[in-house]
Amino acid sequence: xxxxxxxxxxxxxxxxxxxxxxxxxxxxxxxxxxxxxxxxxxxxxxxxxxxxxxxxxxxxxxxxxxxxxxxxxxxxxxxxxxxxxxxxxxxxxxxxxxxxxxxxxxxxxxxxxxxxxxxxxxxxxxxxxxxxxxxxxxxxxxxxxxxxxxxxxxxxxxxxxxxxxxxxxxxxxxxxxxxxxxxxxxxxxxxxxxxxxxxxxxxxxxxxxxxxxxxxxxxxxxxxxxxxxxxxxxxxxxxxxxxxxxxxxxxxxxxxxxxxxxxxxxxxxxxxxxxxxxxxxxxxxxxxxxxxxxxxxxxxxxxxxxxxxxxxxxxxxxxxxxxxxxxxxxxxxxxxxxxxxxxxxxxxxxxxxxxxxxxxxxxxxxxxxxxxxxxxxxxxxxxxxxxxxxxxxxxxxxxxxxxxxxxxxxxxxxxxxxxxxxxxxxxxxxxxxxxxxxxxxxxxxxxxxxxxxxxxxxxxxxxxxxxxxxxxxxxxxxxxxxxxxxxxxxxxxxxxxxxxxxxxxxxxxxxxxxxxxxxxxxxxxxxxxxxxxxxxxxxxxxxxxxxxxxxxxxxxxxxxxxxxxxxxxxxxxxxxxxxxxxxxxxxxxxxxxxxxxxxxxxxxxxxxxxxxxxxxxxxxxxxxxxxxxxxxxxxxxxxxxxxxxxxxxxxxxxxxxxxxxxxxxxxxxxxxxxxxxxxxxxxxxxxxxxxxxxxxxxxxxxxxxxxxxxxxxxxxxxxxxxxxxxxxxxxxxxxxxxxxxxxxxxxxxxxxxxxxxxxxxxxxxxxxxxxxxxxxxxxxxxxxxxxxxxxxxxxxxxxxxxxxxxxxxxxxxxxxxxxxxxxxxxxxxxxxxxxxxxxxxxxxxxxxxxxxxxxxxxxxxxxxxxxxxxxxxxxxxxxxxxxxxxxxxxxxxxxxxxxxxxxxxxxxxx
Length: 910
Description:
Elements: H1 3-18, E1 30-36, E2 39-46, E3 51-61, E4 64-74, E5 88-95, E6 102-110, E7 121-123, E8 128-137, E9 144-152, E10 158-166, E11 174-177, E12 179-181, E13 184-192, E14 195-196, E15 199-206, E16 211-215, E17 220-225, H2 260-263, E18 271-273, E19 280-282, E20 292-298, E21 301-308, E22 313-323, E23 326-336, E24 340-341, E25 350-357, E26 364-370, E27 389-398, E28 405-413, E29 421-428, E30 435-438, E31 440-442, E32 445-453, E33 456-466, E34 472-484, E35 517-523, E36 527-529, E37 534-542, E38 551-557, E39 560-567, E40 575-582, E41 590-598, E42 613-621, E43 625-628, E44 640-647, E45 657-661, E46 667-671, E47 677-681, E48 686-693, E49 700-706, E50 709-710, E51 717-719, E52 723-727, E53 729-730, E54 739-744, E55 750-753, E56 760-764, E57 769-777, E58 780-790, H3 792-797, H4 803-808, H5 815-835, H6 847-875, H7 877-902
Parallel strand pairs: 4-7, 17-34, 36-42, 51-58
Antiparallel strand pairs: 1-2, 3-4, 3-5, 5-6, 8-9, 9-13, 10-11, 10-15, 12-13, 14-17, 15-16, 18-19, 19-26, 20-21, 21-24, 22-23, 22-25, 25-26, 27-28, 28-32, 29-30, 29-33, 31-32, 33-34, 35-37, 37-40, 38-39, 38-41, 41-42, 43-44, 44-47, 45-46, 45-48, 48-49, 50-53, 52-56, 54-55, 54-57, 57-58
Helix pairs in contact: 5-6, 5-7, 6-7
Pfam families: CARDB
Keywords: Membrane, Transmembrane, Transmembrane helix
Protein name: CARDB domain-containing protein
């Protein structure tokens, strides 16, 4: 396989890993995020399932960066993030859960300035597990309702929800309270007639008052009903209905994308696979220029060329050497023009590199760039996406007898754009097969017709325009259509719409017009401090079709009346805000059931008398602390730690007393600031004890630890000329940054040791004498130890590698224990030498036999002297001491039995 083939294979592997469906995807997922007033909203979502799998949002304000993570993001989602007009906002997204996929980084929303490294991710749980809008024909088939449903994550503890809609982006919103059934909320909006194009969404509120909003995709709803004069056809038998008409009254539909009326532009595809096998180019929106680096192989060395950036260096470069089925990675930072990159490779290896630079106004991010022996080349400029479509309009048109309808399509090109061809891919229902209609040029526009279509259908489409130069634009549109022929129109009065629906010159005749009193807003705390006033507020609305007379709203605690408010009547669609206050809560210490009740005396007749209560659990007691020990992820000695104190509701606690006990026993007192912070330096390793207290709070006690910084390969004694390896890490193996290592030489001078990114360095001792190794971090000494550089003779007897330590073990470094073990080992050796004579027979021996006997006895004595030190090496001093005692006892016992066996008893003679 040649190098070019390997390069293509590597690109395919990347796409297969990151975007598993990319090999088959002809389209890319997309999401656009916009600032709309005080909110950050997901717009223009395009994907086969209507949602983007993972979205990371970065918000930089006042020198800090917060990262928020969302999953399953649909069009219209309002992100729960905090920002201001001065914030710098950008986002990443990834979607790989279907046939349409994408992966993009650093897309700027506001104030495009590449920010600093973000603080740790703040994952946001998915609140909306699912939501649907279902069109439903109303009685009479001349209008329709929108039935709305939302399934909410139980972890959010949703108390209420509101469905809202308007017919323009900035128009007045209509709010419809939703009915709660477990974790599912439902509502019905309408009736509507004709064609509507709602901007809609759902807002849910939990018990603490937090709200989350999720919008629906922009969808056209068009009811094509026969004129009301067809009421004269009442009584036409069902057999007269055209056989082509089909009814699908309650098809569920979750809008997943956007309509041309609000987007009016194509989706930008910012992952481009260049021709001739070039690697994927990921563009950074919001930057007019792009950093660049070309790495070439010059005579077996990798050299950085064509470096282009505002600070003349590329922030991060990773070089990968692929050898067979294995690969090796080499990482470099702040790479400059002409720099040689120390990465080992051979001619048979495949070498490629990634780079990223985001530290200035010129930025870039590139993957899988090949390294070859070509001359440095000029970086390709990113091509700008050409916009061809100004708008696409779809208009439903019934036939003469309303048995079917046609969809007329009109595409308007961008002024000055040259569109040669245009076509629409469409389907009726998400699972049906795509069909195609080509649009014909009509003056400056392109038109076409889809149909005939009968009954009630959901319509999904992609409209494409092409200029013949390889450029294309796309607009995605979806809609609901229903055609109602005359025989299906019923002349019945629809109550509450204040219209003459049955053409009898009477409005809402025979209708019972009632009020409908509901809560639309509730501000009920889930916790209140005992002895403090309890404040509750709510908004009551008359959602009925008749004005309401005077009525009461009461507040109950454990079914005990504690406050009451009288509302002097409400007109239709009118609202009133009410406020309750309980001054003394001492009698309600503990868990309570709080209930708000509208019209408890039932003095106002209503359409629904079962939705007049709001029930919630309320805890009255002392507040509790929630302490985050390491809010800024400061983990190492020398770091400045931010400890933050919240209350049980997640609000920062100011002026709380924090008593911090350091590992040495030193105690420091702090008071939290307005943000609930205390700030201190980690100057000691070990366990820190934290005590937090404040009036009206339960006291808090906790602890955290800071790992000691160690040098695992440090030696106390080395030979002159020997290299001392220096590895700086924590006890748990982490590599701290900002480490300074210095060696103080015997003459008092200091020599600084340079460390790699992995915290590794080395020092070579050139002179004999005592040295001191000093490790500092951010101005604090985190490690200090002395070591001795010796000559050859001393190193034989002194030091970790000396002969004495090889013989006796590390106990030689503990003089007292070593001396004790030497004494008792000598005693055991002396016993062994004296008593080992028992092993040899008592008889006359030659001088040669005596020499062998003496040598054996000396060997036994030496063995029993050395063995305790080896036991200490493996099992410790106590085991060695026990072993010596066992040696002596064994010798004494052996001597006793030997002497007993040598005794002779006298023979008695009678």
